[in-house]
Write a structure and sequence with these properties.
The chain has helices at 16-19, 65-79, 90-93, 104-119, 135-141, 148-163, 185-192, 202-227, 249-262, 264-271, 276-284, 293-301, 352-366, 392-410, 460-470; strands at residues 9-13, 83-87, 123-129, 170-174, 232-239, 242-244, 306-311, 315-317, 335-336, 370-374, 416-419, 442-444, 456-458. The protein is α/β, with parallel strands linked by helices and 476 residues long. It has a single domain (9-470), classed as Glycosidases (TIM Barrel, Alpha-Beta Barrel), CATH 3.20.20. The strands form 3 sheets. An 8-stranded parallel barrel has the order 1-2-3-4-5-7-10-11, surrounded by 4 helices. α14 links the parallel β10 and β11 (416-419). The longest helix is centred in the middle third of the chain and has 26 residues, at 202-227. The structure holds 2-(hydroxymethyl)phenyl 6-O-phosphono-beta-D-glucopyranoside. Belongs to the glycosyl hydrolase 1 family. Pfam families: Glyco_hydro_1 (PF00232).
């Protein structure tokens, strides 16, 4: 007997801005992702002030899924996918974000895409906001600093829930909503459309924006359930468990606080309440946040149906010699390398057991079904003399993670809905804007400089994953 139920959601995951291209097609507006240049391992992506001619913006064309989706979906069916996770580009539906009426051409595109998927019995799994909010909401409203964003987001959610209520059952509200807890420039911009100003406290801005997003997410959950009670609406958290560097109890406490600080979004979205330590922290810091009693009721009533999460790597943390009582020193400054693990070319630690650990952690803490909606190995692929890519390293990474996922289900009794490896078709990296940081089983002929025919091809991992799905995870 197989570990997984026969309706287990084997699939693949992408996000609109990382593959669609067609950045101005069908009346689409400019999104956050459209003002981010290409970087690489050493060079961070630049966030430009509007579109500057002559700069390389990799998301403008991406892999032109917008123009290739029919052929691509056919290939996804051949791969054997049961589900396909993507996002709806907010800017196709509301190009500026603050219009009264949605853009019909954008709505039509997703109707056609979902029809195409359903034709092959591939279930769409849809993220409402995946690093791609309208840029206009950044320049005119200051992004999620502004309470008005709740209304704009809810309007967008309502329109797409209504329109696709008979085509889409699985939804998530905000992708990796907790990325911004690291307070780095990239995370604050892609999550919340925020560029921290000199007179601002990044931490306070993050908590305020995060609160508005939590309210918006909870409202979307309630509205979605009203529109179609069969909807399954999840949160989406970036999971990278933090381990203690030594046996010192202070390191254990530090690791615990790092987890709490990273997953407060989970507490709010899954339990419907703020954790005690965080309420005390807000008071101590005199943050004076705009959190109303009504907001707290909304959050309580809008908890999610499942936990969608990404898993790539784990982290290790060490307490400071002068660690303050609240253990809230900037957390990322205290990360150390894990000597027990190997790393990818981008320095991401490879830790399959960490996936099982994470599944147990989520399950214990929130007691909700889990959906692994991202996992994968970014690597440079090389073609052999026949143009074939032998990506054993990728199969090896995925196999080792699926093995741990099976143990979490079989031995630990975790409730797991599905598994969608990230970027199963090569696409633009979110972190670096590169094409050559590849996750795919399907190769796309395009490089970091933006050159290539966009032709699709199958890597060795294509046949391997097909067999994994066909055997319901038995044949790894
Ligand atoms: P890239 C950092 C840490 C964990 C997840 O990332 C992350 C990031 C972003 O770099 O993002 C997720 O493309 C995200 C996807 C992204 C994927 O992981 O930087 O949800 O949009 O592409 C992989 O290698």
């Amino acid at each position: 007997m197989s570990t997984f139920s026969k309706d287990f959601l084997w699939g693949g995951a992408v996000a609109a801005h990382q593959l669609e291209g067609g950045w101005q097609a069908g009346g689409k507006g400019v999104s956050l992702a459209d003002v981010m240049t290409a970087g690489d391992n050493e060079t961070p992506r630049e966030i430009t002030d509007g579109i500057i001619p002559g700069k390389n913006y990799p998301n403008h064309e991406a892999i032109d899924f917008y123009g290739h989706y029919k052929d691509d979906v056919k290939l996804f069916a051949e791969l054997g996918l049961k589900c396909f996770r993507t996002s709806i580009a907010w800017t196709r539906i509301f190009p500026n974000g603050d219009e009264d009426e949605p853009n019909e051409a954008g709505l039509k595109f997703y109707d056609d895409l979902f029809d195409e998927l359903l034709k092959y019995n591939i279930e769409p799994v849809i993220t409402l906001s995946h690093f791609e909010m309208p840029y206009h909401l950044v320049t005119e409203y200051g992004g999620w600093r502004n309470r008005k964003l709740i209304d704009f987001f809810v309007k967008f959610a309502k329109v797409v829930f209504k329109r696709y209520q008979n085509k889409v059952k699985y939804w998530m509200t905000f992708n990796e909503i907790n990325n911004q807890t690291g307070l780095n420039k990239w995370g604050l911009f892609t999550n919340s459309g925020i560029l921290v100003q000199p007179d601002e406290d990044a931490e306070k801005v993050m908590y305020q924006a995060g609160h508005y997003e939590a309210v918006a997410s909870a409202l979307a959950v309630q509205i979605g359930h009203q529109i179609n009670p069969k909807f399954q609406i999840g949160c989406m958290l970036a999971m990278g468990p933090t381990y203690a560097a030594t046996t010192s109890p202070k390191d254990a406490m530090k690791a615990e606080r790092a987890m709490q600080a990273n997953y407060w979004f989970g507490d709010v979205q899954c339990k419907g309440r703020y954790p005690g330590w965080l309420k005390r922290y807000f008071e101590r810091k005199n943050f004076d946040l705009d959190i109303t009693l009504e907001d707290l009721d909304v959050i309580k009533a809008g908890t999610v149906d499942y936990i969608g999460f990404s898993y790539y790597a784990s982290h290790v943390i060490k307490a400071d010699d002068n660690e303050p009582e609240d253990y809230m020193t900037p957390l990322h400054n205290h990360e150390v390398k894990n000597p027990a693990l190997e790393r990818s070319d981008w320095g991401w630690e490879i830790d399959p057991v960490g996936l099982r650990y994470s599944m147990n952690w989520f399950s214990d803490r929130y007691d909700l079904p889990l959906f692994i909606v991202e996992n994968g190995f970014g690597a440079f692929d090389k073609k052999d003399e026949n143009g074939q890519i032998h990506d054993d390293y990728r199969m090896d990474y995925l196999r080792r993670h699926i093995e741990q996922m099976k143990l979490a289900v079989d031995v630990d009794g975790v409730d797991l809905m599905g598994y969608t490896p990230w970027g199963f078709i090569d696409l633009v990296s979110a972190g670096t804007g590169q094409m050559d940081k590849r996750y795919g089983m399907i190769y796309v002929d395009k490089n970091d400089a933006g050159e290539g025919t966009l032709k699709r091809g199958k890597k060795d991992s294509f046949a391997w994953y097909h067999q994994v799905i066909e055997s319901n995870g038995e044949n790894l």
